[in-house]
Amino acid sequence: MLSPAIHVTGLRVQRGGRAVLDGFDFSIERGTICGLLGSSGCGKTTLIRSIVGVQRLAAGSVTVLGEPAGSPGLRSRVAYVTQAPSVYSDLSVAANLRYFAAVLGVPAWREDDALEAVGLADRRRDVVGTLSGGQRGRVSLACALLSEPELLVLDEPTVGLDPVLRRDLWNLFHDLAAAGTTLLVSSHVMDEAERCDRLLLMRDGGLLADDTPSNLLARTRARDLETAFLRMIEPLAVAA
């Protein structure tokens, strides 16, 4: 039996003497879409950095695809798409993909597949700096798809996209999961939670819930996940 895609135990991260993340324990099964949701500043990006192995931990462990997070053996198996597009603005879309394909050592034909997947096949000759913010983000995603990663980590990938593009991206995410890729997708938009197999809800550096959307609705007797989230944080607000 395969180990979970991500297994986190007792995770604690400190910054400036203050706990940014405190006491995280969870697992994410392979081939699923896990949504990481919470307001801006709640620690989502810090948790993502811990998973991809670029964050110093104060305590605990993070295992990814059976190896410690950040292990050299994970470099071609894990792809991370940051909030800010991580591509070269002075190169064309195609040149960016050629460069990253060469770095990753993957076949050139994957460049066309990646651009087709993110809906930018007709913009391959455009200089990235002339594209919109949402389009630059999709170029970053295309570069991440080149290695056909087993784990795809996406930090707020739909920010700034119109509803049609958001829908198309989520269709792509589901296609990737159906093919066996595990996705961790962070967002602060609660309606995207309904598109996930499982949810991690964060608040103020803590893990508020780790469950399926249907179970969260049942637990809170809410009609939608935004209401469910609000019902879970109301007791915390009163206690504070």
TrEMBL record:
InterPro entries: AAA+_ATPase (IPR003593), ABC_transporter-like_ATP-bd (IPR003439), P-loop_NTPase (IPR027417). Pfam families: ABC_tran. One of its GO terms (molecular function) is ATP hydrolysis activity. Residues 6-229 form the ABC transporter domain. Keywords: ATP-binding, Nucleotide-binding. PROSITE patterns: ABC_TRANSPORTER_2 (PS50893). This is ABC transporter ATP-binding protein. It comes from Solirubrobacter ginsenosidimutans.
